[in-house]
Write a structure and sequence with these properties.
145 residues, alpha+beta, Gamma-B Crystallin, domain 1, three-stranded antiparallel β-sheet, globular
């Protein structure tokens, strides 16, 4: 009599543990990735892939040079010349994302969050895909009013 109960209990426990382990880890990693990929309030965020996917790099201030030490969190590697999408969640400042170090070369304006820019439904604070001429072409950025 003990054996059937033990076998039934063991099979149920193993099955439940397996489902919890598989479901729990898959859900946790997806949730963690979704949270980590979210651009937080007052931040300028660069994404490695279009549609806000891949790695994220988020900043609350300007960066004069994306050195080789500055990398995306998650996938993607170095930030320099590797951004396919951007978001700005600062309501007080715009951002210029620039072609070269020290805010030099052409600069791409990312409007402060909530402003009405030309062409975008909520302005140009969200760029799920940068224009081809600006994609993978930023080496610095600066906040300004």
């Amino acid at each position: 009599m003990r054996f059937p109960r033990f076998a039934a209990y063991s099979a149920t426990a193993v099955l439940a543990a397996g489902l919890l382990t598989l479901g729990g880890s898959a859900t946790a990693s997806a949730d963690e990735e979704a949270v980590s990929m979210k651009c937080k309030t007052d931040m300028f965020c660069l994404y490695y892939q279009s549609a806000y996917k891949g790695g994220i790099a988020d900043y609350a201030g300007g960066i004069m040079q994306y050195t080789s030490a500055i990398k995306f969190s998650g996938s993607g590697g170095q930030v320099n010349n590797n951004s396919a999408a951007v978001k700005l969640r600062d309501k007080s400042y715009h951002v210029h994302a620039c072609q070269y170090y020290n805010y030099d070369g052409w600069c791409f304006k990312v409007w402060k969050y909530g402003t009405e820019g030309e062409g975008g439904p909520i302005g140009y604070s969200d760029w799920p895909e940068l224009p081809a001429s600006r994609k993978n072409a930023f080496s610095s950025h600066n906040f300004y009013r």
